[in-house]
Design brief:
heterotrimer; A mainly alpha (294); B alpha/beta (250); C mainly alpha (313); A: 294 residues; mainly alpha; ABC transporter involved in vitamin B12 uptake, BtuC; two-stranded antiparallel sheet; 3% strand; B: 250 residues; 6-stranded mixed β-sheet; 4-stranded antiparallel β-sheet; 38% helix; globular
Chain lengths: 294, 250, 313
């Protein structure tokens, strides 16, 4: 039972950091190596905003809204800045060139964070312990973690709904499917790119913002994220949000099982799953078939 | 004459779609075969099956008495079957001579003759009248020249069976015949069997000894050009001619 | 058979000059050049892969594998000859590459880049969890003899420098020969059109695998030399950001000649030492911006950087 709960919590965290990455890849064919930096930006912004709010003596419960608000703000600022200011100039080039561009952005953002917030750690643990904890058998879990699971579920379903039921969302799906055709049908692909990247940035920042109360926010906290996010996304199939959800769930449960039964392999459990999935489905679980070339 | 290629009941289905249905064909050595048919009729699929790009769902392919049904393009090339493509497959960031050197280098290794690679590339360059383009990047060549390069690459390993997929498509009307003359002239003195896919009936009539007409994955006619192109079915389905009404004939 | 052309002459002169001037160089300069040349070997390997159209974000795997192989040979097998442990490092790296390459050779583009990254992170995780190897702290390595010659104290550093220059010279020469050969010509062909390569009768997988092995061997040697020069090895060498650094230097160096990666690596190390002294929190920013400028303003795309090598006449 503990395995399942731990697994779900970790899976929720993984989903939040991975879904933005897979969305950006699906629509724009960009593997955003700066994803971890956006995650970190979200964490720092959340720590600052919520930290200020709480130390000013305002209502503690509102700090949750502030965490989310910080993430949204980061997305709305960093997203367009990056997409319009940098990425736009590399569209149409080799996929790998764009990876290198986002890698360069990662380097830049890591130092930008240090320049803005300095190198000392930030703490905003208030929201973490605020809601108390709940018991399952002999173990107690902070209710906050439930919030994480809820946030992931909400984000996932909101995304699914937005993609399928709204006009904008369907345009996104069209571009994921076939960019050229979508453009030929009159869809403003440039606008779709901007919206997608901004949403992806927001989701990454949300992952960071919700993580901030549980850790000490330090420079370099986003560096590991890209590796984990990529593994989850590869398992699920690049470009598939459902894949990200399934991949996150699988990895979360496997890692949880590893932690409980075989701690030595905990770090590799994610890569093990990835290797196994790739052996059977070289492009991930939900991958699109490829058309004949000649 | 010996059959250089024979397919027996060759079939390829993609789910419910039959791209090739029960194709049984015997190709004699040193002949020139034209493959005609509408889009999606199965001509390129046939070439893809022979060269191992696609694995057949049924039937066999025999080349010079040897079963090649399950072989890969690389293995098939080593046995002496080469092809050119509908969209020329060349190395865009390399110059024309470098393109040919890649090919002759590979062929040279296979034939264990390394020093000849440069000479062979130069010879091909000359034979295909590409000398003027020697140092141009393949990616910026005009379409007709790219086609020539693609076909030249197909001849690098001195194949016994040459498959040309729409060699004159994308080439201007005036240049079509020149291109075909050039290609067939380049192999004139070697015993090379040629299969070429074409939409231009003038080209087919002029160069093919025999025609295979494809329709919906099947071969619906097989014989000399005069016969096949006169067949009512072929005219209706492929050539696209309406039977002339009685009044106009008078 | 042996054509001594312009590049060979340039390499020979550079190597000789470096060796001749080494007694005059201050300690820090000797150290910097040794480390830079060692890293240059990794970059050379990267450039070979990039020529085949593959960007590896995981050369740290072999950089670390080579370093740790050298370190383990020294500590546990009591082999303290620098040349010997470097040779062992090369063997160890190639052995790992023989396995990993088998899986990676199936992939291209983003998948190849990120999977290579993942593999290097697997080694990182392994090293961190292995307390016998010092976990995150790593352990120290010392130079005993260099190619059989015992050099006491400071001259050991000079000996390592000489070994490094020698190996770099051989590697650059070998790379130059390889690139002009038929096998070398297959790499850009694979990058441009794999289908055509197969239809000409060559194995694309074979070409990728070969270049991957070469890159791994070079990285392993580089890692061992760097580890010996610094006197310490740790898991950080396998972290993906280390691999990223190599990628950056590769992009900056381009491929004017086989000497380019080494010149680039030296420039990078010099710039880094100065940048760190003046403003440690903006070094990555500068690197990132430089990379963006190079990529965005390249006239004919990234790959033009890697095709200028050995144009055929």
């Amino acid at each position: 039972m503990a395995v399942v709960i731990d697994g779900l919590i970790y899976a929720s965290w993984l989903f939040l950091i991975a879904v933005g990455l897979t969305l950006i890849y699906g629509v724009m064919r960009i593997l955003n190596m700066a994803h971890g930096s956006l995650y970190a930006l979200g964490a720092y912004a959340a720590a600052s905003l919520a930290g200020w709010w709480l130390s000013a003596g305002h209502a503690p419960l509102a700090s949750y809204a502030l965490l989310v608000a910080a993430a949204v703000a980061v997305g709305l600022v960093a997203g367009p800045l990056i997409e319009r200011g940098v990425l736009r100039f590399s569209y149409g080039r080799d996929e790998i060139v764009l990876v290198l561009v986002t890698y360069a952005l990662f380097l830049v953002l890591e130092d930008v964070i240090k320049l803005i917030w300095g190198v000392d750690p930030y703490f905003v643990s208030g929201p973490y312990g605020l809601l108390g904890s709940f018991e399952v058998g002999s173990l107690s879990y902070p209710v906050y973690n439930l919030l994480l699971v809820g946030a992931a579920a909400l984000a996932g379903s909101a995304l699914a709904w937005a993609l399928r039921a709204t006009r904008r969302g369907k345009m996104l799906l069209a571009v994921i499917h076939d960019r050229e055709m979508a453009a030929a049908l009159g869809i403003d692909v440039g606008r779709v790119y901007l919206v997608t990247f901004t949403m992806g940035a927001m989701l990454a920042a949300l992952g960071g913002a919700l993580t901030a109360p549980t850790v000490s926010v330090v420079p370099g906290m986003g560096v590991e994220v890209i590796v984990l996010a990529f593994a989850v996304v590869v398992i699920g199939g690049l470009g598939s949000p459902q894949g990200a959800a399934l991949g996150a769930l699988i990895v979360g449960l496997v890692r949880s099982a590893a932690v409980h039964f075989l701690p030595e392999v905990e770090l590799f459990s994610i890569y093990l799953v990835m290797a196994l999935v790739l052996l059977v489905r070289p492009r991930g679980l939900f991958s699109a078939p490829e058309a004949r070339r000649i | 004459m010996a059959a250089v290629l024979e397919t027996v009941g060759l079939t390829k289905t993609f789910g419910a779609l039959a791209a090739a249905s029960d194709i049984s064909v015997r190709v004699e050595e040193d002949s020139v075969l034209g493959l005609i048919g509408g889009n999606g009729a199965g001509k390129t699929t046939f070439l893809n099956l022979i060269t191992g790009y696609l694995k057949p769902t049924g039937g066999r392919i025999v080349y010079r008495g040897r079963e090649i049904t399950a072989l890969s393009p690389r293995q098939v090339t080593h046995l002496g079957i080469c092809r050119s493509f509908q969209i020329p497959q060349v190395f865009d960031s390399l110059t024309v001579i470098e393109n040919l050197l890649v090919g002759t280098g590979i062929a040279g290794r296979a034939l264990e003759d390394r020093t000849g690679a440069q000479a062979a590339a130069d010879a091909l360059l000359a034979r295909f009248h590409l000398t003027a383009h020697r140092l141009e990047l393949a990616g910026v060549l005009p379409e007709g020249i790219r086609k020539l390069l693609d076909i030249a690459l197909a001849l690098v390993t001195k194949p016994a069976l040459l498959l040309l997929d729409e060699p004159t498509s994308g080439v201007s009307a005036e240049e079509k015949f020149a291109l075909m003359d050039l290609v067939l002239g380049a192999i004139r003195n070697e015993r090379v069997t040629v299969l070429f896919v074409e939409h231009d009936m003038d080209i087919v009539r002029r160069y093919a000894h025999r025609i295979l007409a494809f329709h919906e994955g099947r071969v619906i006619a097989d014989g000399p050009p005069a016969e096949v192109l006169a067949s009512a079915e072929v005219r209706r389905l492929i050539v696209g001619e309406e039977p002339r009404p009685a009044a106009a004939r008078g | 058979m042996s054509r001594f052309g312009r590049t060979e002459a340039l390499l020979a002169i550079s190597a000789a000059a470096l060796l001749a001037f080494s007694p005059l160089l201050p300690k820090w300069a000797l150290f910097l050049v040794t480390v830079a040349l060692a890293k240059g070997l990794v970059v050379l390997g990267l450039l070979l892969l990039m020529r085949a159209g593959l960007v590896s974000f995981g050369q740290g795997l072999y950089y670390a594998a080579g370093a740790y192989a050298a370190g383990i040979a020294g500590q546990m097998l009591r082999i303290s000859d620098a040349a010997a442990v470097v040779a062992l490092a090369a063997v160890a790296s190639c052995a790992v590459a023989a396995v990993v390459g088998g899986l990676l050779a199936t992939y291209r583009g983003i998948f190849f880049a990120m999977l290579s990254l993942a593999f290097s992170m697997i080694l990182y995780g392994l090293l961190v969890k292995t307390s016998a190897l010092g976990s995150t702290d790593g352990f120290n390595v010392a130079i005993g003899t260099v190619a059989g010659v015992r050099l006491p104290g400071a001259s050991a550093r000079t000996g390592l420098f000489a070994l490094t220059v020698g190996l770099v010279f051989l590697a650059a020469l070998g790379a130059h020969r390889f690139l002009g050969s038929h096998l070398g010509r297959l790499a850009p062909a694979v990058r441009d059109n794999e289908l055509r390569v197969e239809y000409l009768g060559a194995s694309v997988r074979g070409v990728v695998y070969l270049n991957y092995l070469l890159a791994a061997g070079l990285s392993g040697i580089g890692g061992a030399l760097a580890g010996l020069a610094v006197g310490h090895i740790d898991p950080e060498m396998a972290y993906w950001t280390t691999s990223g650094e190599f990628v950056f230097v590769a992009i900056l160096s381009g491929s004017g000649s086989v000497a380019a990666p080494f010149a680039g690596a030296i420039a990078f190390e010099v710039l880094r030492s100065f940048a760190y002294e003046y403003s440690p929190n903006t070094w990555q920013l500068v690197v990132g911006l430089a990379m963006l400028l190079v990529i965005l303003f390249l006239p004919s795309g990234l790959w033009s950087l890697f095709t200028r090598w050995r144009r055929a006449r």
